[in-house]
Amino acid sequence: MKIVTIDREGKTHAVEGNDDWTVMEALRDSGLPIAAECGGACACATCHVYVEEGWLEKLPPQLDEEIDMLDMALEVQPNSRLSCQIICSDEMDGIKVTLAPE
Amino acid sequence: MNDLSATGDGALGPLETDAIVVGAGPAGLFAVFELGLLDLQAQLVDILDRPGGQCTELYPEKPIYDIPGLPIVNAQELVDRLLEQIAPFKPVFHLGEMASALKKLADGRWKLSTNTGKEIIAPVILIAAGGGSFVPKRPPIPGIDAYEGKSVFYAVRKMEQFYGKDILIAGGGDSALDWTLNLAPIAKSLTLVHHRDGFRAAQHSVNQMRELVEAGKIDFQIASVKALHGDNGMLESVTLAGSDKIERQKEAEILLPFFGLTMKLGPIADFGLNLNENLIPVDTEKFETATPGIFAIGDINTYPGKLKLILSAFHEAALMSQAAFHICRPDEKLRFQYTTTSSTLHKKLGVK
């Protein structure tokens, strides 16, 4: 599956996402600048992305843990998600995300 | 005779030890143990106010499953056990201090200075700084740097400086809520700004905050800070934007953003260690950097095949210590011993 990713300069990247990987892992593996300081433990809010409308509704609901952790993110919007909490799958093929500011 | 060379810690002069460890996370802590087995004394510097690094700061409650011999251990428990393990070697901790400068002395040793002016001298420097120093997350508000330290603060050192001010606090965690409650009585006005009507903070703090809002003592806005207005770093008002994107102005003399900590490499970048993408290249025999006497272990180093795992840092600490011994004790022969059988090691460890 592909993750259409817009970086902080506005450039678009088609990132390959393997099944069962998290979107954060796929973005990190592709070399995009995503800090993901805690390594995917939902404990730092530094893998923050904005999910494009349309895709947001298709994602499984956020766990309380993620909602709480987003309180430590900057520039939170209604479509904010932590990319370590989004799992890649065929249904997610073409999902569009934008890296949040650092 | 007066010692005119005395600097740093008052009349005591600079501190001296065998190895200065920058970073008191699991890598730095276990290095104290491996150094200690070789009779090398260590002093640790860490910007956090307690040992443990990421384990303690980011995910103390999270279970770790890949520490050899510990099928499951919480991150904080691992740190506690490491502290217990190194206790016999009486490590000296300099907590809440940032390693800010490194200088080579004429006698070949290193002098590390901290941001509080402390100076430590040792033949060996060990960088075990993980992802760098934990520093407050800085909101991406244009021009915020001009206000920092004057009217924008990421920590409260002296409450009195906020007496009678129009204060705006941004965030929804424990720090944001605690300072809302603490500063409300002394502020001229206090506004809490958060992106949602829900909080990560402790429920009783949230309840107290809501009571203050209902009593009209503080204001709560579901919004985020978009722009700062003022002259010469002195804040006068801010622009807030709600989820409806509608912007409004709010008077504020002080902004306190509380969004937790993030890792920045900091002054280590200026230690002359040939950084490669913010990592320190080392060899895999001694985990020494290109600069003799300076070693790097744990998440901050890089070498072919590097894995950022705590267990890798432990291995690196053991090999690094062997090399450090030869630098600290050039005239002595290193005796390789096992903790299972060596009576001298047992003595060091306090085994009865």
Describe the secondary-structure layout.
The complex is a heterodimer of chains A (102) and B (352).
Chain A: E1 2-6, E2 12-16, H1 23-29, E3 48-51, H2 64-69, E4 80-82, E5 95-99
Parallel strand pairs in A: 1-5
Antiparallel strand pairs in A: 1-2, 3-4, 3-5
Chain B: E1 15-16, E2 19-22, H1 26-37, E3 42-46, H2 53-57, E4 63-64, E5 73-74, H3 75-86, E6 92-95, E7 99-104, E8 110-114, E9 119-122, E10 124-127, E11 133-136, E12 166-170, H4 174-183, E13 189-194, H5 203-214, E14 219-222, E15 224-231, E16 234-241, E17 247-251, E18 254-257, E19 261-264, E20 280-281, E21 294-296, E22 301-302, H6 310-328, H7 343-349
Parallel strand pairs in B: 1-9, 2-3, 2-10, 3-6, 10-21, 12-13, 12-18, 13-14, 20-22
Antiparallel strand pairs in B: 4-5, 7-8, 8-9, 11-19, 15-16, 16-17
Verbal overview:
With 102 residues, chain A is an alpha+beta fold. The mean pLDDT of chain A is 95. Chain A has one domain (2-99): Beta-grasp domain (Ubiquitin-like (UB roll), Roll), CATH 3.10.20.30. Chain A has helices at 23-29, 64-69, and strands at 2-6, 12-16, 48-51, 80-82, 95-99. The N and C termini of chain A lie far apart (26 Å). Chain A has two helices and five strands, in the order E-E-H-E-H-E-E. Chain A has a five-stranded mixed beta sheet. Chain B is of the alpha/beta class and 352 residues long. Chain B folds into two domains: 10-135 and 262-349, 3-Layer(bba) Sandwich (FAD/NAD(P)-binding domain), CATH 3.50.50.60; 144-259, FAD/NAD(P)-binding domain (3-Layer(bba) Sandwich). In chain B, the strands form seven sheets. Chain B has a five-stranded parallel beta sheet, with helices on one face. In chain B, strand 7 and strand 8 (110-114) form a beta hairpin. The longest helix of chain B is centred in the C-terminal third of the chain and has 19 residues, at 310-328. In chain B, 39% of the residues are buried. The A-B interface holds A 35, 37-39, 41, 43-46, 67-78, 101-102 and B 54, 58-59, 62, 131, 137, 139-140, 171-173, 194-196, 198-200, 224, 243, 259-260, 262-263, 308.
